[in-house]
Specification:
The protein has 318 residues and is of the alpha/beta class. It folds into 2 domains: 57 residues, no CATH class; 234 residues, TIM Barrel (Alpha-Beta Barrel), CATH 3.20.20. Helices cover 36% and strands 13% of the residues. It has 12 helices and 8 strands. Strands 5-4-3-2-1-6-7-8 form an 8-stranded mixed beta sheet. Helix 9 links the parallel strand 4 and strand 5. The radius of gyration is 19 Å and the shape is globular.
């Protein structure tokens, strides 16, 4: 009963304050995300509520992630970035570094600050120009923190290690048990270099199956507000996307591309840009992806084995 009341209160607060403001408060100090106890997490949250609120009223994006490659050393069945689908279609590729840098420049020209900029994939350590991207972000005064996501299977090269040695950078290693076969080696070399490391464990949910669900309007709205995935805005093709499912669902033509699910940085500036950005954090009856998705949330989504591997071409939806 108490748990239900607590969750109910959280939903009300989320709707009243808005998701972007809440994310600004939570992401303003990255130490909160690395807190080892509930007390220290709450401490850093309370300490930076006011700066987070102030940052909201500026052109601040609390969190954004950018894929540098869809090549990966793993093939996880419920990958939220649809890597097995890319593999099955022969579409695995690296994004041209010039395009990535142009996307970063365009984003920076529209905002005052980015609290967390996360580099994702695929597996980022497979991307040959990764050091170039990291160096561009670390010298950017508008970017407060840079995070590199890795699955613990690929050792970073020397150029990447040099780029990672920066107080703004964290390497986030997803702990997939025996699958992350180079995790210990990576941690050792990063620690020796003085590079901040975060080990992340996950509860996985069914995530990469996009198809018509016949949801009621109430169910779609509830799914949106409870979905973890809708917290993660994505930078791709000069656009900020609603979530990874909306981005990759559109690229792979699994869902209809919907202008309500992205902000085109080439077309919108100033107050118009911020109005459209804030729209991505609020529920809209026009959303397409949510109507075809199971969401990434404990309340609605089906739990699945963490990082369950498949064989490319073994029948995964494509």
């Amino acid at each position: 009963m108490k748990r239900r009341m607590f969750n109910g209160a959280k939903k009300i607060i989320k709707k009243l304050l808005g998701r972007r403001m809440i994310r600004c408060m939570l992401e303003y100090n990255v130490k909160r995300n690395y807190a080892t106890t509930r007390f220290t997490k709450y401490f850093f949250t309370i300490l930076f509520i006011l700066p987070g609120i102030i940052s909201y009223f500026r052109s601040t994006i609390p969190y954004i992630e950018m894929d540098v490659t869809s090549r990966c050393s793993l093939s996880c069945k419920e990958c939220t970035h649809f890597i097995p689908v890319y593999q099955n279609r022969g579409m695995s590729r690296d994004v041209d570094v010039t395009v990535l840098l142009e996307n970063i420049e365009l984003l920076m020209s529209r905002i005052d600050k980015c609290l967390i900029f996360r580099i994702t994939g695929g597996e980022p350590f497979l991307y040959e120009q990764l050091s170039v991207v990291i160096n561009r972000l670390t010298i950017e005064s508008k970017v407060k923190h840079v995070e590199i996501a890795t699955n613990g299977t690929v050792m970073p090269g020397e150029k990447v290690l040099e780029a990672l040695h920066n107080k703004k950078v964290t390497v986030s290693i997803s702990d997939y048990g025996v699958l992350s076969n180079k995790k210990a080696e990576i941690i050792k070399i990063l620690s020796k270099r003085g590079i901040l490391v975060k080990i992340t464990g996950f509860i996985w949910y069914e995530a990469n199956s996009l198809m018509p669900r016949n949801y009621t309007e109430k169910k779609v709205e509830s799914l949106f507000f409870n979905c973890i995935g809708s917290e993660f805005k994505c930078l791709f093709d000069s656009k900020i996307w609603l979530c990874p499912q909306a981005l990759h669902g559109s690229v792979l033509e699994l869902v209809e591309t919907n202008e309500s699910e992205f902000v085109d940085l080439r077309e919108h500036t100033g107050k118009d840009f911020m109005r459209r950005l804030n729209r991505l954090y609020r529920y809209s009856a026009k959303l397409t992806t949510c109507r075809n998705c199971t969401g990434v949330c404990p309340e609605f989504s089906k739990r699945v084995p963490c990082a369950q591997q498949i064989t490319t071409g073994s029948g995964i939806a494509n």
